[in-house]
Design a protein that fits this description.
The mean pLDDT is 96. This protein has eight helices and seven strands, in the order H-H-E-H-E-H-E-E-H-E-H-H-H-E-E. The chain has one domain (5-203): 3-Layer(aba) Sandwich (Rossmann fold). The longest helix has 14 residues, at 144-157. Strands 3-2-1-4-5-7-6 form a seven-stranded mixed sheet, sandwiched between helices. With 207 residues, it is α/β, with parallel strands linked by helices. 44% of the residues lie in helices and 22% in strands.
Length: 207
Amino acid sequence: MEINAVEFDKIAREVFAPVYPVIAEQIKHKTGIIRGTCLDIGCGGGYLGIAMAGITELDVYLFDASQEMLKIAAGNIAGRGLEQRIQTLPGDVHKIPLDDNSIDLVISRGSVFFWRDRQKAFQEIHRVLKPGGVAFIGGGFGTTALKEQITSVMEKRNNNWREKLKKNIGENAVEGFAETLRKAEISPFEIDRNEAGLWIIIRRESF
């Protein structure tokens, strides 16, 4: 799916900016992973991965299929002086260019809804996770208040915003994701859906 990288980043910076530090804290608390290597899939401008680097000792790959988004992400890395800990990585979630058992934490906010083949993508994520590693993937907003704040802005840009939210993170989305994960033969997994959004948590079992 083609996106306008500049417009997409403008929305991320001007509308979604408050959610990234909140979600990063939630990921840190939920997974307990603060060291090793993190992969931020569909990173866009890199805001979630950069937020994770800011509160952990993780080295981070900002991974996206769009070279334009990665150029923006690279600028954000340089602007924060994080070149030693964060690098961009181009590629497709359906064929992640990383070794098996190489990543401690996989994160992604918003990109799962654009994946062409979710079953294949989840299998790839599971492949690159180290034993004991965790994936935290979905479409959360951090808090209910932030969700409503963003919705009030996005409804003015997109008349179908609430309908889109219902489809992506509504009650019916849970079973759809669960079925995909079962078909991918991924276990264990948890789907945490609440008023602030929906997250899929996959824990790679230790050998």
